[in-house]
Amino acid sequence: MNTNEVAQKLVNFCRKGQYTEAQDELYSKDIVSIEPKGTPTERAEGIAAIKAKAEQWSSMVEEVHSNVISDPVIAGNFFSIAMKTEATFKGMGRQTMEEVCVYEVKNGKVVTEQFFFTPAPM
Hints:
The protein has helices at 3-15, 19-26, 47-60; strands at 27-34, 43-45, 61-69, 73-75, 78-89, 93-106, 109-116. It is an alpha+beta fold. Strands 1, 2, 3, 4, 5, 6 and 7 form a seven-stranded mixed sheet that branches. It is globular and about 40 Å long.
């Protein structure tokens, strides 16, 4: 798959809330994930660490009220999407989280993901 095809598939998975399926099909086993400073997992390496990070996030969420995913913007081996999620978090109440997500694709797989957002106080 080329970058555009990976981007379109990832957006479709995310719009359906199928993040595990996206990881299983589209992510490299050696993926690197980078989050802003001050988040629980600022850097995770390898698919097992990415899945553990996703499970940690899910365990903090009581309910997702809405999840809006933009169309991808593609440039060479990179693409970005904007995500806006409204969710109720355990012990933190209902919040809206907006982020820009940047992905790098090599050999038809996502090899890096980086998220840009302002972390909520923990």
